[in-house]
Design goal:
The structure is a single chain. With about 280 residues, the chain is an alpha/beta fold. About 40% of the residues are buried. The chain starts with 6 loop residues before the first strand and ends with a helix. The protein folds into 2 domains: about 5-60, Roll (Spermidine Synthase, Chain: A, domain 2), CATH 2.30.140; about 60-280, Vaccinia Virus protein VP39 (Rossmann fold, 3-Layer(aba) Sandwich). The protein has 9 helices and 12 strands. It has helices spanning about 60-75, 90-95, 115-120, 140-150, 175-185, 200-215, 250-255, 265-270, 275-280, and strands spanning about 5-10, 15-30, 35-40, 45-50, 55-60, 80-85, 105-110, 135-140, 155-160, 185-195, 220-225, 235-240. It binds S-adenosylmethionine (SAM). S-adenosylmethionine binds near residues 56, 57, 88, 109 and 167. Pathway: Amine and polyamine biosynthesis; spermidine biosynthesis; spermidine from putrescine: step 1/1. InterPro entries: PABS, SAM-dependent_MTases_sf, Spermi_synthase, Spermidine_synt_N, Spermidine_synt_N_sf. Belongs to the spermidine/spermine synthase family.
């Protein structure tokens, strides 16, 4: 048994549980104007980024999150040309989005430039595509960005944010969803990380309700494993102006780029709705 100091632990007292990762060293710690960022070297998960005490990204399992935040929505949209990523400062979602040749422009809008600078230093593989001529990196508040953006100017908005507290709180309310709806073109889709189906059902059901109140005709949640997040089971929720059951399956089967998790079968399976979830949404 090694000393407790060899472990990074994130506790979820309200859910009587915790996650611990064995660490080799703390590599960095700083307080930015927005949040506290820590970087660890772990024994088995590689580098780990933590924001305000919450795990964000590990070398070992970030592919699950980044692939599932991007490829399902991009293969659901009939022709995604312009994509905004709100948050996503580690650049992993940007890298996955830019694997799609049909994407002509991808703008990442993160409030905190330090997240990206530290990702460049400690997670260089995630930042592989930052110099792609189709990529633009902005360091401003995503809430303000959508407020200021012209109507019908984007095909897909991906909200790859921290939890709905602190600077990300305003990314989970009806006013924000209304602005996203206004900025999206016909067939436009908003895809947002929506926390754990095991721990955060009130949040997920409220997202469905207010996304519809904000004008979206359809909402749909997809599920995937994510070891380093609370409960190990995570979700993303889509809100669409068009039909969210569409799937460019032939394109997904023939995808010209490698993935580690996503494929056409995973796409279909990820949208399968567990019984408790179906029942919770029925009550909306
Ligand atoms: N994969 C992570 C998760 O679900 O835990 C999210 C990772 S990403 C690092 C989250 C990013 O959201 C952070 O870099 C943070 O700066 C950004 N963020 C939080 N609130 C924001 C806002 N209002 N506008 C833009 N970015 C925001």
């Amino acid at each position: 048994m090694r000393d407790a100091q060899d472990w990074f632990t994130e506790s979820y007292p309200q859910y009587g549980s915790a996650l611990s990762l064995k660490i080799k060293a703390k590599l960095h710690e700083e307080q930015t104007p927005f949040q506290r960022i820590e970087i660890y070297d772990t024994e088995w998960f590689g580098k780990l980024m933590v924001i305000d005490g919450c795990t964000m990204v590990s070398d070992r399992d970030n592919f699950l999150y980044h692939e599932m935040m991007t490829h399902p929505v991009l293969y659901t949209h009939p022709a995604p040309k312009t994509v905004w990523i709100i948050g996503g400062g580690d650049c992993g979602s940007l890298r996955e989005v830019l694997k799609h040749e049909e994407v002509e422009k991808a703008v990442q809008i993160d409030i905190d430039e330090r997240v990206t600078r530290l990702a460049e230093r400690y997670f260089p593989a995630l930042c592989d595509s930052n110099d792609d001529p189709r990529a633009e990196l902005l360091f401003i508040d995503g809430i303000q960005w959508v407020k200021d953006a012209p109507e019908a100017s984007v095909d897909v908005i991906i909200v790859d944010s921290t939890d709905p507290v602190g600077p990300a709180e305003g990314l989970f309310n009806e006013a924000f969803f209304r602005e996203c709806h206004r900025c999206l073109r016909a067939d436009g889709i908003l895809a947002q990380q929506s926390e754990s189906p095991l721990f955060h059902m009130p949040l997920i059901t409220s997202m469905h309700r207010i996304m519809r109140q904000a004008g979206f005709s359809q909402t749909r949640t997809l599920f995937f494993p994510q070891f380093i997040y609370p409960s190990g089971w995570w979700s993303a929720t889509m809100a669409g102006k068009g039909d969210l059951s569409r799937f460019r399956a032939d394109a997904a089967v023939a995808k010209p780029f490698p993935t580690q998790y996503y494929n056409a079968e995973i796409h279909r399976a990820a949208f399968a709705v567990p019984e408790f979830f179906r029942n919770a949404l029925r009550e909306l």
